[in-house]
Amino acid sequence: MTTIREPRLHPIAIRELRPTQMTVGMREVAAKVKHWREVGHKNVYLGTHTIPVVHGLKERYYVIDHHHLAYALQQAGVKTIAVTVVADLRRLKKSTFWSFMEARGWTHPYDSGGKRCDHAELPRRITGLVDDPYRSLAGELRHMGGFAKDVTPFSEFLWADFLRLRIKRHHIDKDFSTTLAKALELAKSLDADYLPGWCGPVQRH
């Protein structure tokens, strides 16, 4: 088995990329679309924002990070993007491929309700990703300092699941700002101390 980090400078069509998760936070996607439209040197931006992938089953490229960026760029009309091949797993059989992906933390097959699904249910295109409001909430929570960016795979989804058990979905839909304040309170509690990037409890004076 070959594990590599080989920048593929030739462009790959975003529509050909295979997701390894089922959901994204659409608020984060929208923010990235807005940022892209404000970028002055778009070719420079694309040259410094590659998508990490695994070259796998049936010669396909499986995205293992930056799903939000890939989705945003496609929404903004970008057709192709450079990828970085993290591992070449083309010779593995399907069952072995997904077992290895699981072991490396390179796949997150959970739906918008936090339910575990079969890998066969993963979307076949980036545009097949659906919104998980709790992932949007977790993304905004990190941006406002609720927790630190962490290298743990799918760390924002771990936070999303934490919030999912404590905040009702209709509160997110009805009043996102108020719900975000509640999420920040929860993030600073000792209940969250096991999560990646936890920043500690609020100091009382």
Summarize it.
The chain has helices at about 25-40, 40-50, 65-75, 95-105, 135-145, 155-165, 170-175, 175-185; strands spanning about 1-15, 25, 50-55, 60-65, 80-90, 130.
The CATH homologous superfamily of the largest domain corresponds to Conserved hypothetical protein from pyrococcus furiosus pfu- 392566-001, ParB domain
Strand arrangement, major sheet: 1-5-3-4
End-to-end gap:
55 Å
Number of strands: 6
The CATH class label of the largest domain is Alpha Beta
From the coordinates shown, what is the CATH architecture of the largest domain? Alpha-Beta Complex
Number of domains: 2
Structural class: alpha/beta
Biggest sheet layout: 4 strands, mixed
Strand percent estimate = 15-25%
- Backbone CA Rg: 18 Å
Q: Which stretches of 5+ consecutive residues score pLDDT under 50?
A: none
> Total helix count?
8
Tertiary shape: globular
Helix content range: 25-40%
**Mean pLDDT rating:** 92
The CATH topology of the largest domain turns out to be Conserved hypothetical protein from pyrococcus furiosus pfu- 392566-001, ParB domain
Strand/helix succession: EEHHEEHEHEHHHH
